[in-house]
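User: Can you recover a sequence for this backbone? Please restate the input before giving your answer.

Assistant: Of course. Working from this structure:
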């Protein structure tokens, strides 16, 4: 097989994090049934959750500057088991990695 490092949880692989269960519930309710969930969708979902949290932390008017400031000050954040750390000016917030192997039939195995 072929090995690959995933930097996002695969919502179809039995992920046990709360954020994976939340994604699955939201995808079941709102997602396109013709398209299978993927790590790329999970990445977008996590980015949306981060954006929502930043907007919640804005004091005063919500605009580009205030949201950027909230993101700059967000520090460490636990999104249901998926940890982000933007403290001390960090810009790459996640250290998540999972090793998968693509089997002969093209399916990713974890």
């Amino acid at each position: 097989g072929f090995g690959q490092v995933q930097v996002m949880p695969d919502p179809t692989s039995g992920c046990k994090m709360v954020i994976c269960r939340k994604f699955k519930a939201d995808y079941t309710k709102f997602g396109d049934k013709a398209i299978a969930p993927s790590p790329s969708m999970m990445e977008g979902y996590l980015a949306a959750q981060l954006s929502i949290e930043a907007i919640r932390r804005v004091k005063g008017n919500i605009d580009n500057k205030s949201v950027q400031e909230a993101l700059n000050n967000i520090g460490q954040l636990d999104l249901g088991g998926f940890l982000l750390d933007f403290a001390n000016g960090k810009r790459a917030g996640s250290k998540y990695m999972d090793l998968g192997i693509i089997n002969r039939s093209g399916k990713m195995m974890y």
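That completes the design. The helical segments are 18-30, 39-57, 64-72.
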